[in-house]
Amino acid sequence: MRLNLSKRLKELQREVARKEKELARDMEMMLAFPRCKYCGSGHVVKFGTFRGVQRWWCKECQRKFVDNRALPGMKTPKEQVASALNMYYEGMSLNAIRRHYGRCTKTILLIARFMRGGKV
Ligand SMILES: [Zn+2]
Description:
Shape: elongated
Number of helices: 4
Oligomer: single chain
Bound molecules: zinc ion
Number of strands: 3
Distance between the termini: 76 Å
């Protein structure tokens, strides 16, 4: 009886160790894989590279995206867009914003128009 219990205990310990390894691997995957820019789903797979930048495919909404901290379809990081818009609405000229960020005036105008709900 005692022999059986110690055998069972060892089996359980091995199973726990295996489960811990599986969990650690899953956590690594979750940290390495980004969330979808469009729907926020974690069901994404690698979708090749373009000019050295990893592209991703969302299995939920069937769309491609790049994990670059930018809004969907844009290259400019979100923080920079928000800051540029803030400057624009505070009355700074488009040329001054362009000089500050090195982005073209058209990008800033398009973002401003988009935020007002107009057509891009
Ligand atoms: Zn998605």
